[in-house]
Amino acid sequence: MFDSRLLTLRAALAGAALSLGVAAQAAIPIQHWSLPNGAKVYLAATQALPIVDVQIDFDAGGRRDPPAQAGLASVAAGMVEKGIRAQGGEPALDQNALGEAWADLGANFDASAGSDRTSFTLRTLSDPALLDKAVRLAAREIGEPAFPDEVWKRERERINASIREANTKPATRVERSFSQAVYGAHPYGLETTEATLAQIDVAAMRAHYERMILPCRAKVSIVGAVTRAQAEGIATTLLSRLPAGGACAELPPVPEVQPLAAAKNEHLPFDSAQAHVLIGQPGYRRADPDHFALTLGNYVLGGGGFVSRLTEEVREKRGLAYSVYSGFSPGLHAGAFRIGFQTRPDQAAEAVKVSNDVLAKFVADGPTAAELKAAKDNLVGGFPLLLDSNRKLLGNVANIAWNDLPLDYLETWTARVNAITVADVKAAFARKLQPEKMVTVVVGGRP
Fold first, then answer.
1. Mapping DSSP to helix (H, G, I), strand (E, B) and coil, where does residue 167 land?
2. Pair type for strands 335-343 and 275-284
3. Which among 126, 254, 299, 301 is most buried, taking Cβ atoms within 10 Å?
4. Alpha-carbon distance 347 to 288, whole Å?
5. Which of 359, 370, 342, 257 is nearest to 298 (CA)?
6. β 335-343/219-224 pair status
7. Alpha-carbon Rg of the chain, whole angstroms?
8. Where are the beta strands (DSSP E) in 227-268?
């Protein structure tokens, strides 16, 4: 029975790309409503596929971690999958039993936490019997995690070993120094270390979980072969094992990322063949109206691979790096803008200067009309590929839900991209970036 369910799921997935690729040409409408418990539900019904994908997001990411316990949200989410406690006459399930239960259903469940949110995802076939069992098992995992102490002690040692190994690599050093310089005291700059993990025990995880993972804080995104009534039942059941109650107490505000007052430069010696370089500063929030202009402009600047200005000047003309890129990482706060590359240590200063010159010219002048058209053609042409599977569509719906974007965001995406002008890009970059105040971190070269 287990094998046949997996084969059915694989067959369904094989047809998903074609079916959703066609549907993407006319974006699937998104329905939105709130449950009595305060949870917000977003549904994109795609009846052609016998699959249901669900993502539940909570404002319980790393930005809510106490500084002394950096990593709390992430490890708490990871421990959700390590077992379920006995509750209401139902038996406890350890990690192995839980894995077997999911395998028997041919379904997948995952818990994770990033800087902004803690997320739970479920993928299952839409067959009513399988769907009901998968939703009920997911509800137990969300609402009744065991947080076994002996498992956490083992996991902490594993994570500590990973941290120690990462600390031997220049890529870790450059990322750490860059984040600290760009974000300062903001939670986006917090680093999980052996010291912060030592301050986290299962009691801290439970306290964090009980305070943050509540139905009234949930945003539930559902994509697949379900009706609105079915979707409401799924969302209600998934949250049913969490503590019931009235309105959530308002969470304390998280301060915004502060703009840089001046340029910062760090050169950290490291015995490596290549110098790792990051240049950047705080960027913008995901809900910023400049998002489309900045996305198009970044394609021209350094996001377009071999057709970008940075690649032309740094790689093609001067051979200073094999690859170079630029990008924004917007979130609930101003995620970093960055330019990144690796180069020979003796070429790092020249490569940094060239990159800064390219950036300053782009901010001052913006793209040419031809460059902007090429960026639009690429992004618009690739748009259906962002929606050609249930999982990709789910990611887009969850993005709309999380950032409070318009429900017609996907339907109007192409028109909004095509409406951007050269002047729009130039103005947006001038508002967001100050080339004279960049953080520059170079890790590499012998002391």
1. coil
2. antiparallel
3. 301
4. 37
5. 359
6. unpaired
7. 24
8. 264-268
Query: Cα 342 to the chain's mean position, in Å?
Result: 24
Q: What per-residue confidence (pLDDT) applies to 249? A: 87
β-strand partners of 43: 31, 222
Residue with tokens 């840089």, as numbered in its chain = 260
Look at residues 89, 28, 442 and name the one whose alpha carbon lies nearest to residue 270: 442
CA 426, 429, 434, 435 dihedral sign is negative
Distance CA 40, CA 415 (A): 27
Say which amino acid occupies 75.
V
Task: Identify whether the C-beta of residue 441 lies closer than 8 Å to the C-beta of residue 268.
Answer: yes
Q: In percent, how much of the chain has pLDDT > 70? A: 93
Task: For residue 133, give every residue at least 6 positions away whose Cβ sits within 8 Å of its Cβ, in sequence order, or none.
Answer: 105
**pLDDT the model gives residue 27:** 67
Answer yes or no: is pLDDT of 234 > 90: yes
Written as six digits, the tokens of 397 are: 């719906």
Cα 57–chain centre separation:
11
Q: How many helices (H) and strands (E) would you count in the chain?
A: 16, 13
**Residues 196-224: what's their mean pLDDT?**
97
Q: CA dist 172 to 37, 78, 175, Å?
A: 42, 22, 5
pLDDT confidence of 21, banded at 50, 70, 90? very low
Q: Would you state the structure tokens that stand for residue 221, as one six-digit string?
A: 């995104």
